[in-house]
Amino acid sequence: AQSVSQHNHHVILSEAASLELGCNYSYGGTVNLFWYVQYPGQHLQLLLKYFSGDPLVKGIKGFEAEFIKSKFSFNLRKPSVQWSDTAEYFCAVIGGNTGKLIFGQGTTLQVKP
Amino acid sequence: DTGVSQNPRHKITKRGQNVTFRCDPISEHNRLYWYRQTLGQGPEFLTYFQNEAQLEKSRLLSDRFSAERPKGSFSTLEIQRTEQGDSAMYLCASSAKEGAIYEQYFGPGTRLTVT
Predict the structure, then answer these.
(1) How far is B59 from chain A (nearest CA, A)?
(2) Of A9, A91, A103, B11, which residue has the fewest beta carbons closer than 10 angstroms?
(3) Nearest CB to A106; choose among B35, B42, B104
(4) Is A44 in a helix, a strand, or coil?
(5) Nearest residue of B to residue A99, measured between CA atoms
(6) Angstrom distance (rounded) from CA A64 to CA A87
(7) Which of A36, A42, A19 is nearest to A110 (CA)?
(8) Which residues, other chains included, contact B36 with Cβ-Cβ below 8 Å and sequence gap of 6+?
(9) CB pairs below 8 Å between A and B: how many?
(10) How many whole angstroms separate alpha carbon B81 and alpha carbon B17?
(11) Which residue among B55, B101, B106 places its CB closest to the CB of A44?
């Protein structure tokens, strides 16, 4: 069965620190990978997505993620976080043609000003 | 606003009552999804529609849950004989094919509390 694992449940950083959130998935076929963000009081929004091509994907607000097929990973990075990045971050995968998203359990990021 | 909308935003009900939620997708999006999210967890897939056809249902969707999408537009999710374990945020998402994949856009959710 497909699954997604996010390594960090709660991360606390100071502004300007670098961020890396881990995500590993379990699926042997072609995958489409996503990172979603949920700011306090808001709905889920797409940060970035990967479905083919360059494994280094750039998203909104300075975020990027790297797809490493051999490691089944899709880690999210940002060189310098801001207080406004405080949110919950979800990694997700669509396996094959099902269309459904399989989400990780999420990582809560708290950025201290 | 042209995003996905959900009503009601909050619902408090007593155990054993029936509840119905509505989702209005982005216009012309042919796929519509329902997910459930509990505290501290990522959303879990419940079911999805392509136009009016319900193509997949999760094992999480017990007999007490039913979803419809008449005419391929809005969708309703009904929970009969609610239980306390049904308390959760119910999310709706819609999508249309962009290139090779369907990118899903989420609504604000309906928070259900069963007392």
Answers:
(1) 13
(2) A9
(3) B42
(4) coil
(5) B102
(6) 16
(7) A19
(8) B43, B44, B46, B60, B88, B89, B90, B91
(9) 59
(10) 5
(11) B106
CB pair distance less than 8 Å for B44 and A51: no
* Rounded mean pLDDT, A64-70: 95
Residue by residue, pLDDT tens for chain B (115 residues) are 579 999 999 999 999 999 999 999 999 898 999 999 998 899 999 999 999 999 999 988 889 999 999 988 999 999 999 999 999 999 999 998 766 677 899 999 999 999 9
Q: Does A92 touch chain B (CB under 8 A)?
A: yes
Interface test with chain B among A43, A49, A98, A105, by most B beta carbons within 10 Å? A43
**Residue entry with tokens 């119910």:** B90
Two structure tokens written together for A77: 């990075």
Beta bridge partners of B111: B10, B89
Answer positive or negative: Cα dihedral of A9, B112, B90, A102. Answer: positive
Tell me the CB-side half-sphere exposure of residue A96, using CA atoms within 13 A. 7
**Quick check: A44 and B45 CB within 8 A?**
no
Which helix or strand (DSSP H or E) is residue A108 part of? strand A107-112
Whether A87 contacts chain B with CB within 8 A: no
Q: Return the C-alpha torsion angle A38, A72, B98, B57, nearest 10.
A: -70
Q: CA torsion B78→B83→B84→B90, rounded to 10°?
A: -20
